[in-house]
Amino acid sequence: MRIYNFDLLSYPQVPTDAPGTPVPSSYFDPMIGASNYQEHLYEMEYCEQLGFEGVIFNEHHYSAYGTMPSPNLIAAALSQRTSRIKIGVLGNVLPLRNHPVRVAEEYAMLDCMSGGRLIAGFVRGIPAEYLWYNVDPKESRGRFQEAYELIITAWTKPVWSYHGKYFHLENCAIWPRPIQQPHPQVWVAARSSESIEWCAQRRIPIAQIYQTTGQIEDTFNYYRIAAGKEGWDASPEQFVLTRHIYVDETDGKARNVAEPALRYFFSLQNRGFNQAITEETIPHHRDPNFQREGLRVKKELYTDRSFSYFREGNRERIDFSLLSWEDLDKAGYILAGSPDTVARKLNEQMSQIGADHFMGMFHIGNLPHRKVIASLDLFQKEVMPQLDGAKRSAAAN
């Protein structure tokens, strides 16, 4: 089992009485934000000392849920503060990027700056961000796929041209090019059947997070089916599980600390994205047209068959913010407790879904920095030795 720290870099002090989507930027205190960046960077750097395989970041916009609109900047900073740990961006939102060559160039820079440690991730983004960036959701899949093809071409050909529906480039050559050859490892966050099939055709590992363990099992099994149709067998190396995680001395102490931080996180998640695409909140929003447009975008990003592969009982998308702590635990959404409890639950989930990579979201919402460090320490000392087939990075050897 390969262990990573996955960080959204949430803003820690949005008051409970702040307005809903969009939360005015006046609620962002630059001094608090600056301190928050430093604490998260320290936590990521510390993971190298603990023997983690890597640290992973992602991209979000217009929200306190994730204050990394440019995760490549965080990756660049961390490349200069570490020497062995892998640095992953999962990922750049390709359909929101007007020019994918910029992604190819920046990822190549990151691979050079880190000495060949980059995991290059690509995602399509979420419905609300298409509204805020004024990007046609009907073009999402086409723009994503063309951008990916263009980036791979730029990385692997000394001089190249590209002519697609959305991008037309002639006689180009990017400088620099990545250390990893033919190109850095690629990961994609994929859930719809169309995205899974596309990834399986290219043998790209996929990551999952906001689903029950049973739903993630269905998603990964569908990838295995798609891979079989392409003539190859998908191994656990192709699958990445992501979970909120907190380790303390006892199950009770873990809940007392983690549950308030998780509820704060859910409030950010809802304000940042879910309010923009939920019919029930339309009457309460300052701009009902925005919410109706959000619902339209959501429908245009997916088709009737996108999630038809789920087994009966697993097809409903769950709003985890409405679940009790006990139901969150039962769904597999949260891994929290004593070291023995966390190790057992993590082994069970990874065995059920057949994955080799685990990304732990150790910094939950507004969890204090000292609690994150204490949880990381306990995880390294008492959980990692119990993990089935655990693989440590060279830093731990």
Largest sheet: 8 strands, parallel, barrel
How much of the polypeptide forms β-strand, as a percent range? 5-15%
Number of domains: 1
In CATH, what is the class? Alpha Beta
Give the termini separation: 15 Å
Helical content stands at 40-55%
Total strands = 11
Give the mean pLDDT: 91
Low-confidence stretches: 278-285, 390-397
Cα radius of gyration in angstroms: 20 Å
Biggest sheet strand order reads: 1-2-3-4-7-8-9-11
Overall body shape: globular
CATH architecture type: Alpha-Beta Barrel
Order of helices and strands: EHEHEHEHHEEEHEHEHHHEHEH
**CATH homologous superfamily (4th level) name:** Luciferase-like domain
The chain-level structural class is alpha/beta
Question: How large is the count of helical segments?
Answer: 12
Question: According to CATH, what is the topology?
Answer: TIM Barrel
Would you summarize the structure shown here?
Residues 278-285 and 390-397 have low confidence and may be disordered.
